[in-house]
Amino acid sequence: MQTSFNEMFQQNSNVKLAGFSALNAQPVDLTQAASSSLHAVVHIRSIQEAKMQTVQQAPDIFDFFFGDGTGQQRQVQTQPRVGFGSGVIISKDGYIVTNNHVIDGADEISVKLNDNREFKGRVIGTDPSTDLALVKIEGDDFPTIPVGDSDALKVGEWVLAVGNPFNLNSTVTAGIVSAKARSLGVYNNGIESFIQTDAAINQGNSGGALVNASGELVGINSVLSSPTGAYAGYGFAIPTSIMTKVIADLKQFGTVQRAVLGVRGTSIGSNLMDDQRPIDRSGKTLADKAKELDVVEGVWVSEIVEGGSAAGADIQVDDVIVGLDNRKVSNMADLQEAIAKHRPGDKVKVKVIRDKKEKSVEVTLKNEQGNTKIVKEAGMDILGAAFKELSADLKKELNLGYGLQVTGVSNGKMADAGIRKGFIILKANDQPMRKVSDLEEVMKAAVKSPNQVLFLTGMFPSGRRGYFAVDLTQE
To answer: Domain S1 motif, which positions (predicted)?
Structure first.
């Protein structure tokens, strides 16, 4: 005798099927969140002026055999470049968060509000490691978005991406949080712990707002993942847990006070379980190490950086980091995001698995230089020198395409390095010097680097070459 489905279901009332256990969810109204966010998201236009650039011509056949074989240099003028992006007003007095790549290299920044008012933007500070920048416009009583807690954001929660894709002002798209603590490898040695969303993010959305259903800012739209350069299913945003601390540092110090744990390691997960790369001369692979550790998630510590934070604490090679303070650490992106909230000098509790036992270790965080000092934005005044761009006549006389001439030296880093008036700087840390702002930009990056040295290549008006190393460390 056959039993119908209804009879079987009634007889086995304890059986739960997917369709019958679904929650009676109410539709989410996002209109209020959209309308309250639109006015605080701005359109940013960055302009790079035309510049003279020196290029190397291929040598002709006579020069190849009888000359120096290098060809001749000639100057070409680059075309002006205009870029577009978005930004988010976070204070009534006109502080705006955007992506570093939106304003990087800009000679002029124009900010247009949703009500079509236009302002000149001034860069307060940038942080390429997180792709964040802080811009200021003059005025007061600007509309803002309240900053929410990205840590409280849940996978599956509704979010809105607000920005100006393809120059289409005030565009809102909706989606859900698809994943958190995503690392894509798009920033060289940068900090990546993205919120992944299927809300459409396209070119021009960069720097715009990712807001939750309550209209709170939970991320800064940054990256789209697509083989075509247009939306193809997923976009990525920098969480406010990282943004809040970075922006506070840029506003107060002009540069980020970055703490580092001082370990090198690898995320443990399915990828590591299958990784056949050798880790020592015995032929042991990463997959072998993963099996040996017998931990399903966390960060395996493969090396302790000498002089770093971990070196002064009881963290050891082969420890697996699984938590920091009250935060669970599942992978390297989790660890980076947790550390990014802190400044050098902060004490944190690091939870590790060692010999299959859990252990809590207190660590005092240091910066990349291995200390806890506040790093201030270095002004050009620490060099103790004045500079000017080479005149057209001097360029022609010395057959140079670019350069900065030292017009005066007083007490400072330049004098300490032995540099004297008249020296022409051609390159600083391998970057060509065409204008004074080029030197300032390279110097600021050098101050944040571990060695804090400015390597200068150039020549004296006599034609003699000169090479100098300028120590930028500050007491």
So the answer is: 293-366
Q: Where are the domains of the chain?
A: 29-256, 263-364, 380-471
Domain 29-256 falls under CATH 2.40.10.120: yes
pLDDT in tens, 226-237: 555 555 578 899
Tell me which amino acid residue 190 is. G
380-471 has which fold? Answer: Pdz3 Domain (2.30.42)
Distance CA 128, CA 190 (A): 8
Domain over 263-364 is classified CATH 2.30.42.10: yes
Distance CA 249, CA 59 (A): 50
Catalytic residue list:
101, 131, 206
Do 29-256 and 380-471 have matching folds? Answer: no
* Residues in contact with 373: Cβ distance below 8 Å, sequence separation at least 6, in sequence order: 344, 367
d(CA 345, CA 37): 36
Which neighbouring-strand residues pair with 96? Answer: 89, 135
pTM: 0.74
